[in-house]
Amino acid sequence: MTAPIIDLRSDTVTRPTPAMREAMFRAELGDDVFGEDPTVNALEERMAALFGHEAAVFCPSGTMTNQVAIHVHTRPGDEVICEEGAHVYRYEGGGMMATSGCSVKHVPADRGRFTAEAVVAAVNDRNAAYLANSRLVVVENTVNRGGGAIWPLADVGRVRAACDAQDLRLHLDGARLFNAMAVDGTAPAQWGALFHSISICLSKGLGAPAGSVLIGPGPFIHQARRVRKRLGGGMRQAGLLAAAGLHALDHHVARLPDDHRRARRIGEAVRAHPAVEEVMPVETNIVIYTLRTGHSAIDHVADIAAGGIRCMAIGPRQVRMVTHLDVDDAATDRVLERLRSMAG
Ligand SMILES: *Cc1c(COP(=O)(O)O)cnc(C)c1O
């Protein structure tokens, strides 16, 4: 018998567990566009309460929660301040520009984390009629392109203070915020207090098949519901998916440190590989590394794949591996063996 494929390309590849499918099967359902799906309502209320906000809205994807948030915070012609590798800028189909008509200003960052000073420096002169209106700052935690780097809460507090002083809104792309909280012990309400809106993905480390939640003040979420509908994100008996999300909150948060421990083991094995020049510090469930000059990420990924292990080339010499619910200790051992055998 051949061993099953180990898929480290992303934490989005997980399949719902039997217990999660059972929860989905049992979910009470209604038409959510009428506000009548009790399971969606329960998920939205729970997430709002958890983060200390008034309301929340369930969306099919994290791209939609982010883009809906950006749309509600801005007007066409406004400028959004974010980091160059930010998911909202790089991986959401140009949504900020196309859907919201915003321009973007990038701030310098350390693995995706920027300073309050950098935000202040990026704000356009309010008196200059020829400049775009700086309106919104987006923080990503953990930082996907930053190898799962965690933002210190205190640094975000400084960014928020700068936003208040500069009349800017602050949105959190918290696709993997639960990974960050599992490491630094911060609580959802602490993040809730610092942001005007928060997007949380249930389909990443939490292991739901789909779904993200946008959290914020009541009037903001009311507007967000309209934009979600306009973009085609009004799902009907969406409680099927919300039930998976609720199950994930109950059962898949406490286990996130297992993913982090396995990612660290993979990170150490990668560091020992002779073709590897540099590994980003492994803080959560993402391992990003750069190969030495003369090595190609695509060839390296193909080499690993010959051992039944999938990972992703994210640059000419850059490779990403992500641990998740479907990668256990035995699978981690196999990844380590494969890397060692390639090193020989
Ligand atoms: C995955 C991800 C999202 C949302 O992506 P979807 O695939 O649309 O759910 C947003 N931000 C970050 C940082 C992500 O990694």
Key features of this structure:
344 residues, alpha/beta, Aspartate Aminotransferase, domain 2, Aspartate Aminotransferase, domain 1, 2 domains, seven-stranded mixed β-sheet, four-stranded antiparallel β-sheet, 13 strands, 41% helix, binds pyridoxal-5'-phosphate
Give me the secondary-structure category.
alpha/beta
CATH architecture of the largest domain: 3-Layer(aba) Sandwich
Spell out which ligands are present: pyridoxal-5'-phosphate
* CA radius of gyration: 20 Å
Largest sheet: 7 strands, mixed
Mean pLDDT: 97
Write down the domain tally.
Answer: 2
Strand fraction: 15-25%
CATH H-level name of the largest domain... which superfamily?
Type I PLP-dependent aspartate aminotransferase-like (Major domain)
Give the total of beta strands.
13
Question: Could you outline the blueprint of secondary structure elements for this entry?
Answer:
Elements: E1 6-7, H1 18-26, H2 38-50, E2 55-59, H3 62-73, E3 78-83, H4 87-90, H5 95-98, E4 103-107, H6 116-122, E5 133-140, H7 153-166, E6 169-174, H8 177-184, H9 188-192, E7 197-201, E8 212-216, H10 218-230, H11 239-251, H12 256-271, E9 276-279, E10 286-291, H13 297-305, E11 309-310, E12 312-313, E13 318-322, H14 329-343
Parallel strand pairs: 1-11, 3-4, 3-5, 5-6, 6-7
Antiparallel strand pairs: 2-8, 7-8, 9-10, 10-13, 12-13
Bound molecules: pyridoxal-5'-phosphate.
